[in-house]
Design brief:
The chain has two domains: 102 residues, Jelly Rolls; 77 residues. Helix content is 34%, strand content 21%. A hairpin with a 2-residue loop joins strand 4 and strand 5. Helix 1 runs antiparallel to helix 2. The longest helix has 38 residues. The chain is globular and about 65 Å long.
Length: 216
C-alpha cells in the first residue's frame, strides 16, 4: 500500500494527530516568540530544519540551527523564538496527544485553568454530526472498557509476576519468558484501551469549545 511522503517546504501543518502522538511541521516568522508553557503528559521533540531558533527549557537557553534537536520533557517549561533573519521551520512531535495539550501558568506558580482546543487547531476535522450526549456515552463506555482492561491486567500481573519469580528461582528460563509474555499480552490491551479513551476524550473536549456546532 502506498504511504504518504511529506515535505517541510510544502506541508506546514500537523501531519499526524492521534492520541499516541502528534507530529507536525511548524513555521515561525522572523521575530516570533511562542508563549511559554508545559505539557502535563507529553514529551516534546523539536528538530530544526531551517533558520535559527532559541529554545529556553527550564530557564536554560540555546540557539539551534538546521539538523539540531532538543527535547522538553513532561512538566518542563519551554519557549521558542526565531532569532534569525529568515523563517524558522521545524519538525516537532508531542507524545501523547491528549487534551489539554498545553498548560499555562500564573506568575505565582499556580496553573491557569485548562485550555481545550478545537480539533481544527491540530488539523483534524471536528465531528459536527454526532450529538453531544452520544459522545458522552462513548466516553463512559471507553472509560468502563479501560477500567475492565486495567482490572484484568492487574490480576494477570499479580499472577504472572509470581510465576516469573518462581521460574527464575527454579532456573526455568522458558517458564520465566512465558510469564513475561503473558504479562505483555495483558498489558497491551490495557494500553490500547487507554488510548481509545483518550481518542473519545479529545473529541468531547473539542466539542465543548466548538462554537460552530449547533446540534444537541
Amino acid at each position: 500500500m502506498p504511504f504518504q511522503v511529506l515535505d517541510f517546504h510544502n506541508d506546514i501543518r500537523n501531519v499526524l494527530t492521534t492520541p499516541e502522538i502528534r507530529a507536525r511541521f511548524l513555521q515561525f516568522e522572523v521575530g516570533h516568540t511562542a508563549q511559554i508553557h508545559t505539557h502535563d503528559l507529553g514529551h516534546e521533540i523539536f528538530l530544526i530544519l531551517q533558520g535559527q531558533a532559541e529554545f529556553t527549557i527550564e530557564g536554560h537557553a540555546e540557539v539551534l540551527g538546521p539538523g539540531q534537536l532538543c527535547i522538553a520533557l513532561t512538566d518542563e517549561d519551554h519557549q521558542v523564538r526565531n532569532v534569525g533573519d529568515e523563517p524558522v521551520i521545524m519538525y516537532l512531535s508531542v507524545t501523547p496527544h491528549i487534551q489539554p495539550t498545553h498548560t499555562y501558568w500564573n506568575e505565582d506558580g499556580t496553573k491557569k485553568p485548562p485550555r481545550f482546543a478545537l480539533n481544527t487547531s491540530y488539523d483534524v476535522e471536528p465531528d459536527r454530526t454526532t450529538p453531544t450526549d452520544e459522545i458522552l456515552d462513548q466516553q463512559l463506555a471507553a472509560a468502563e472498557a479501560w477500567l475492565s482492561a486495567v482490572e484484568t491486567n492487574t490480576q494477570t500481573q499479580r499472577e504472572q509476576i509470581a510465576a516469573f519469580k518462581a521460574a527464575r528461582a527454579a532456573g526455568d528460563e522458558a517458564a520465566a519468558h512465558a510469564a513475561r509474555d503473558a504479562m505483555w499480552a495483558s498489558l497491551y490491551p490495557a494500553f490500547r484501551s487507554g488510548f481509545a479513551l483518550a481518542d473519545v476524550w479529545n473529541s468531547f473536549t473539542s466539542r465543548t469549545v466548538d462554537t460552530d456546532y449547533t446540534g444537541p
